Amino acid sequence: MRDGDGFVRIASTTDVPENSVIGLRVGEQDIALFHLENGEFRATDNICTHEYALMSEGWLEDCVIECPLHAGRFDVRTGKGLCAPIERDLPVFEVRISGTDVFVKLP
Ligand code: FES
């Protein structure tokens, strides 16, 4: 359900254990939802910007996700690509938590 300012409820906070990531599809958008060690929730596009791989199948360490296909790494807070072969940053989506509901602002 989309509210007036473009946020859509995509999950419950309990769907994602701390220090892990899940993949979701909302409409046409693939989303990786991260629950970081420090308790923050972050969301990015779930498709790597290098080739086709799901970030939710990669390895999360602190705030960095490593792509399962060629080991490209991104900071999930900013989407910034951190090493080769990544040439384009990962789109990030604003997250809002309300109670146990996780909302993401989609483009
Ligand atoms: S597909 Fe992600 S680094 Fe190549």
Descriptive report:
Helix content is 0%, strand content 42%. By secondary structure, it is mainly beta. The chain has a single domain (7-105), classed as Rieske Iron-sulfur Protein, CATH 2.102.10. The radius of gyration is 13 Å and the shape is globular. The structure holds FE2/S2 (inorganic) cluster. FE2/S2 (inorganic) cluster (FES) is lined by residues 48, 50-51, 53, 67, 69-70, 72, 85.
Features:
4-stranded antiparallel β-sheet, 42% strand, 107 residues, Rieske Iron-sulfur Protein, binds FE2/S2 (inorganic) cluster, mainly beta
Return Rg in Å.
13 Å
What is the CATH architecture term?
3-layer Sandwich
| Percentage of residues in strands | 35-45%
Structural class: mainly beta
Mean pLDDT: 96
**Overall domain count:** 1
Strand order of the largest sheet: 2-3-4-8
Separate helix tally: 0
Write down the secondary-structure element order.
Answer: EEEEEEEEEE
Number of strands: 10
Distance between the termini: 15 Å
What is the general shape? globular
- How is the main sheet built? 4 strands, antiparallel
**In CATH terms, what is the fold-level topology?**
Rieske Iron-sulfur Protein
